[in-house]
Amino acid sequence: MSQKLLVFLVGLLLVSALGSYLYYRRSVASTPVDPWALVPDDAALVIATRDHPTLVRHLKETQIWDNLTGVRYFQQIEENSALIDSVAGSPSVVMGFLGTKLVLTSLHVTGPTTFDLLFQVPIGTVREYRQLRGLINGLGQDARYRVTTREYRGQQITDLRLRGTGHGITFLNYRNQLIMSTNAGLVETVVRRLEQPELPSIAADFKNTDYLQHKDVDAMLLLNYRQFPRFLGVFFRPELRPSLESITGLGHNGLLGMKLVGNKILFNGFTNPETTRDALHQRLRGQSAQRLRMADVLPLRTALLLHLGLQDMTRLPVARRSAPVDTLADRTGSLLDSLTASFSREAALCYLGSSSPRQIPAKLALVYCPDPLRTATLLGQLRRLTGTSPSFERVGPYRIYQGGVPELPSRLLGGFFTGFDEAPVIAQVGDYLAFGKDVATLRTWLDDVVGKATWSSSPAQVAFLQETQPLARVSLIMDTRNSWNVLLRALVEERRAGLLRNEALFKRFPQLALQFVPPTNEADEDAQYYTQLLLRHPAVGPAVAGLQGANATGGLLTFKTPLSSSPTLVIIKGARIPGVLVQDRAQVLHYITPDNVVAWSDTLPGPVVGPVSRLPVGGNSGYLLATPTQLHLLDMQGRLAPNFPLNLPDTVRASSLTAGPAIGKTPPGLLVGGGGGNLFLFNTNGRVFPGWQPKRLDFNLAAPPHYLVVGGRTVIVALLENGYVYAYNQQGNLYPGFPLSVGSRLNTGAFVEAGTTLGRTRLTVVNQHGERITFNLSGDVVSRSRVATWSRSSVFRLVPDQARRGYVVAREEGGRVSIFDPSGRQLLTQNFLTSGRKPIQYFDFGAGRRVVVITEPAPQRAYVYDAQGRLVGGQPFVSTAPEVGLHYEAVTGTYYLFRTVEAELRRTDLKMN
Question: Where on the tree of life does the source sit, at the highest rank (predicted)?
Fold first, then answer.
């Protein structure tokens, strides 16, 4: 009987235990737990994630994952995950466990120089609970680890430590919410918070907001701005704390949704305004948001910009008002008030990048002046009142004056604008007034403004600004590459090594902007700031824009693949600078806009043969070009026209392409030189002209044939190297008077003077004896004269200008090149080191603006000569292509020289007399 009683009692105990467990599961653990209520109030920020496989995939797609894996902290997470997978005996256990759970990661400051993370992961099923227990048991059996449990205020806490080091993790299972941290104190803080369930959660202000319900949101970020100065104090020097507290005084908390979108990370959400007295929000309340309009005066070397969009600058607290009244304040008070009242719309504090962490970063204070003349008058009165010298230093068209009042920016614009010492300097650029600590700072800034090295001239920066909020009250904009040395200097010593280790991640997104847009009605108690945090890197493309150098003018575009073709300029109506077509060695054709941005790229089956022509496509002007096996007609967006590309016969390799004009409704004709003396003729619909048979001439072509239309009749003019000229009609028959001999060999094409009849249409060539022969299409020689003397080693070429309105004659004799005008007058002569043939270009922009460019291929130099035969710049330009592009802009009198240097497309702005 006793044995049966024992079995009964054990069974009763088991049933009781099972009942207790079921009660716990159904009544206690099943009761929903607000995970936000478990986060301690001192969290500086909390990250909420849900779909972890998708988040990791997005991180990999945007290439952030590669940068994260280089950070030591994430390397430790990967190592721990690998250890867990190993103990569990299954791959991807951690990722499978996280799945689509709501995981909270909060950041807490745990000491003057330390911070730690607290993780919260729900346990969803009994199977997951068993997995967790199995993992703990497995680690407990590993000799490297020590697993202990302890009671803390009625809760069981587990400590997992690596033997001999004390490093490890502490975790708590509260109602199937796994709370863990490497800092045991954080877990104990959660336990203490459990004793006060009446306290609102850290996210109570956003209890009805869940951005994670949106499909395209990868994470959610809760910001506790009141804890930010303490958190930032872990990294930055103590003297920066007041400024950090002022900036974070706009709001007390905010909730943002995070999206990983291609080349950027975008946080969007709302911020609750700070309600404490004298906070930044209280000082700026009621000010309408303003645009950032000062891009023309913000230099590209800007590291950090604090921009205030305010209508009334007098609302800012002025430092001089809180200072003891002194003689200077008595004398200048009303005048300074008038100056502050003359400002409006926007003010900014701009830190410039430095070359070394040891260098104090230069900074500027910029403010908009709606009436620049009135502001200048008030500044003049201030100089006279304080006895400041009226002398100035000139930089370009601008002047630098002494300010005359110590800490003048802070006296005018408030506490943000301190640190300008005893003698600030001033300069006015258009509608903006700038303050600098010293003359060197303003001189550097003005050099950038004069050289147009500003935000408005940078396509990458303009694209970045277009993605920011157009109207904002406060904007904090950072260039992480420019700010590298500035940050290294601002960090406390023990944090510099960490920043250096994580340089790749920090510079992954060089463009960063945090903006606060005020509500329309700030009187509403529930009014919030719309907040956007944008981290962006310029869109990944075939090229990166830049500047040629600190003192160079123009633009630079660096491609991933070296360029193989000469630049072809594309004149665009209304644009000051032309577009450019250029091909790289991967046979990709790129179109670069006048703003120095690659608009489109198109892979071709081979190198471009000959020049690119313009033909109409769909009502616009497209680009006609040839590769050895195909003809291509592209529209303005780089898309192929209907029926293109046209495929050449297998035995044909194009050596030239000449387009003829359309005649009525007849589509334009295309004349293809097939190497040697072969000619093929068809139209843009791919139809061969009736009666035309492919021509195989007796001798090689001296130049691409001319495709002319005279009086409605097609004329194909072929000039051969043996000095004979052939003229064919559309059916391939010779015109009367042809072939015609010019008396000696030819090495170049003809200069065409169009007429209404064959007899009035004239062509001029220069033969190998230096004779200029002009003939008409009736086969008559109109004139013959000698341009220059000749010898057996001399080679003559006729070089037309870019618009084919005129020409010059070039004579090469070994390394000596001479240029003559049509009358035989020598324009210039130059001796070169090499004796090979040198491409020569002639440009005539009217009014005597003539330019000759001679390229020496071997040393890769382009010599640019002005109308007087002088070498522009006193030295040649580096150019790896046979030819350059040159454009003249009449309004500014500027010549734009385009050239390729390996993988770079360079534009140099020149001035010639």
Answer: Bacteria
Report yes or no: 816 and 832 within 8 Å, Cβ to Cβ: yes
Q: Which residues contact 111 (CB under 8 A, 6 or more apart)?
A: none
Residues constituting the chain: 913
Q: Which of 400, 470, 462 is nearest to 437 (CA)?
A: 400
Cβ neighbours of 178 (radius 10 Å): 19
The answer, as to whether pTM is greater than 0.85, is no
In angstroms, rounded to a whole number, what is the distance separating the alpha carbons of residues 760 and 358? Answer: 76
CA separation (Å) from 291 to 163, 531, 592, 655, 764? 58, 15, 29, 55, 60
d(CA 581, CA 520): 48
Does residue 444 contact residue 427 with C-beta atoms inside 8 Å? no
- Residue-wise pLDDT for 537-580, tens only, equals 776 567 666 555 444 567 788 888 899 999 999 887 656 788 89
Q: Can you give the pLDDT at residue 26?
A: 45
600 vs 906: CA distance, rounded Å: 18
549, HSE (Cβ side, Cα atoms, 13 Å)? 4
Asked if 505 and 67 count as a contact pair (C-beta separation under 8 A), the reply is: yes
Are 434 and 449 within 8 A, CB to CB?
Answer: no
3-state SS assignment for residue 48: strand
Is residue 436 predicted with pLDDT exceeding 50? yes
- Whole-angstrom distance, CA of residue 898 vs CA of residue 886: 6
Better pLDDT: 304 or 523: 304
Nearest to 725, CA basis, from 755, 767, 694: 767
H or E stretch covering 346: strand 346-352
| Euclidean distance between CA atoms 480 and 487, whole angstroms | 9
pLDDT digits (tens, 9 = 90+) for 197-234: 889 999 999 988 999 988 779 899 999 999 988 888 88
H or E stretch at 706: strand 706-710
Nearest to 799 by CA among 758, 838, 849, 848: 838
The answer to whether residues 259 and 265 touch, using CB atoms and an 8 Å cutoff, is yes
The better pLDDT of the pair 486, 13 is held by 486
Mean residue pLDDT of the chain comes to 83
Q: Which long-range contacts (CB under 8 A, 24 or more apart) does 788-793 make?
A: 788/818, 788/820, 788/824, 788/826
Mean pLDDT, to the nearest integer, of 331-339?
Answer: 81
**50 or 91, higher pLDDT:** 50
Pseudo-torsion of CA 729, 733, 738, 740, nearest 10°? 90
Q: Could you tell me if 546 and 558 are in contact, meaning their C-beta atoms sit under 8 angstroms apart? A: yes
- Name the nearest CA neighbour of 611 among 623, 599, 629: 623
- Across the range 761-779, mean pLDDT stands at 91
Counting Cβ atoms within 10 Å, is residue 13 exposed (0-12), middle (13-18) or buried (19+)? exposed
User: Which residue from 217, 594, 292 is spatially nearest to 464, judged by alpha carbons?
Assistant: 292
Find out whether 293 and 346 touch, Cβ atoms under 8 Å: yes
The CA-atom distances, in angstroms, between 23 and each of 14, 19, 178, 468, 688 are 14, 6, 20, 54, 90
